[in-house]
Structure formats: C-alpha cells, structure tokens
Amino acid sequence: MASILKVDTLTGVTTAGSISVTGEGNSTTTNLQQGLCKTWVNFTGVSSTASRDSFNVASLTDDGTGQTTIAFTSAMSNVNYTGSWYNNGAASGPALNQFANAFTGGFGARTTANYGVYAYSSVAIDSYWNDSVIHGDLA
Amino acid sequence: MASELRVNTLKDASGNNSIATSVVASGSAKATLFYNQASPTVLDSYNVASVTDVSTGVFDPQYTNNMGSGNYSCSRMGVAVAANLDVVSYAYNKAAGSVRCYNGENNAAIDYTQTDVVVFGDLA
C-alpha cells in the first residue's frame, strides 16, 4: 500500500543524528545523515562572483583570479569534510567547455566556516561554470 | 526503543516538499573519504573499512558495505597548495568492494595530505 509521511523533522530514536535507510539491494542499510550532501553551489566567477543556486551557502568571496571562498550558512563540525569541485576553465558559456581546455583545479584551505576553491586552465582563471558539493558532519 | 518506519513518500508537515524514500536511498552518498596519503591517515570517512596505499598518488578505499556492482559514480578531488597548479584527480578500476584513486599535479603522481572521495550508486 502506498503511504505518505508528513513531517518537518526526522530524528533518530536511539541516536538523534542517525537514521538508517534500506539500500537499493533491499538488504544493506545506509545512514541517512552521513549520506546527505551538506552543501552545494553553482556559481560564476566571471566579472563578479555570483551564485546561480545553492544550498547551505551564506556567501561567496572573490579572493583573486580563479580563487573563491565558499562560506557555510550552517557550519561543519570539523575541517575533515570531503567533497568535489568542478570548473570549466572558460571565461564564457559552455561553448568553450571543450576537451582541449584541460581545466583542472582543487580545494584550498578548509575551516568549519568556509572552504576555498582554485580554478585552473593552464593558468589561474575565473571560470564561468563552477560546481561544488560537500559531504561530512554538520556542527 | 528502536523502530522501523515503512513509508513510500516523505513530505513536510504542510504537505509540501515531497520526496520518495527511493530517492532518499538513491540520492544519498554511499561512501565518503577524506584522506592524507602523505602520511597515510583516514581523516574522516563513511562506509570505508580501510585504505590501501598502492603507490605514489594511488590508493584504494575498501568499502565496509559493498556496492552492488562496479557501475557507480565516484567524485574525486586533490587539494591544491597554491592557486596556479595543474591538479588532476580521478577514480578508475571501480569494483563492488573498492575503487582505485589517483592524484597528479603538474604531470606527476603526488601523495596529497588532503584528498577527497565521494561515492554515489547502489549498495549490494
């Protein structure tokens, strides 16, 4: 029978911050809180750094060419969080997002309040497309 | 008391923001790893039992609970220590029990003090 649960907050019974969800194989469980993305952002670094859309992002700071600091709305509990970061290494739209651009980049410093990202395509570059996702423990 | 709730859909109390529990299961990361390969240390992880240090820039996270197959998605990151570096990080040799990860910088393999792995896909 189909069912709908209407609720604003989910909290574990044994441990408030831990709820098990049965995985796709119908046997192994995964942890809801551990598996949830804690932050994501899509932004442009061209002209003026600006978010297109985001979750749990308070602000973006332009720290120089190709360098951006992403600040959390709700802080992480420690600096040992993980995630990913992508930039298209191009100063305009997706038409320039070609294989030959050889765009790379990496994370900069991490704190519980924010983290840095570096965009690179032969040289540091303000990229048009920037995507980042963070996983880890909220404070 | 431990409890189990069987439900197909979650909504907020106003009846909005509907999400199927199948989306919650499929959309959740199945493993995460924040790793120091320079002095091999797991800084933080979820569903990672151990990490095998294979060679410079190459390491294999081993899952606690296996994935259903090798057909999952794995996001990778290295940590640039300066802005103007050519950092390349990727995953390959995906298996149900582990994944091989590589970090390179300026065309050479490198052991980073901070590197990231996030896995999405179906658990076994």
Structure description:
With 139 residues, chain A is mainly β. Helix content of chain A is 3%, strand content 46%. Chain A has one helix and twelve strands. Chain A has one helix spanning 32-35; strands at 4-6, 20-22, 29-31, 39-44, 50-55, 57-64, 67-72, 82-87, 104-110, 114-121, 123-124, 130-135. In chain A, strands 6, 7, 9, 10 and 11 form a five-stranded antiparallel beta sheet that branches. In chain A, strands 5-4-12-8 form a four-stranded antiparallel beta sheet, with no helix packed on it. Chain A has a two-stranded antiparallel sheet with strand order 2-3. The longest helix of chain A is centred in the first third of the chain and has 4 residues, at 32-35. Chain A starts with a strand and ends with a strand. Mean pLDDT of chain A is 86; it is low at 95-101. Chain B is mainly beta. Chain B is built from one helix and eleven strands. Chain B has one helix spanning 21-27, and strands spanning 9-11, 19-20, 31-36, 41-46, 48-55, 58-63, 73-78, 87-92, 100-105, 108-109, 115-120. In chain B, strands 5, 6, 8, 9 and 10 form a five-stranded antiparallel beta sheet that branches. In chain B, strands 4-3-11-7 form a four-stranded antiparallel beta sheet, with no helix packed on it. In chain B, strand 8 and strand 9 form a beta hairpin. The longest helix of chain B is centred in the N-terminal third of the chain and has 7 residues, at 21-27. Chain B is elongated. The relative contact order of chain B is 0.24. The mean pLDDT of chain B is 90. Chains A and B meet through strand 1, helix 1, strand 8, strand 9 and strand 11 of A and strand 1, helix 1, strand 3, strand 4 and strand 7 of B. Strand 1 of chain A pairs parallel with strand 1 (9-11) of chain B, so a sheet runs across the interface.
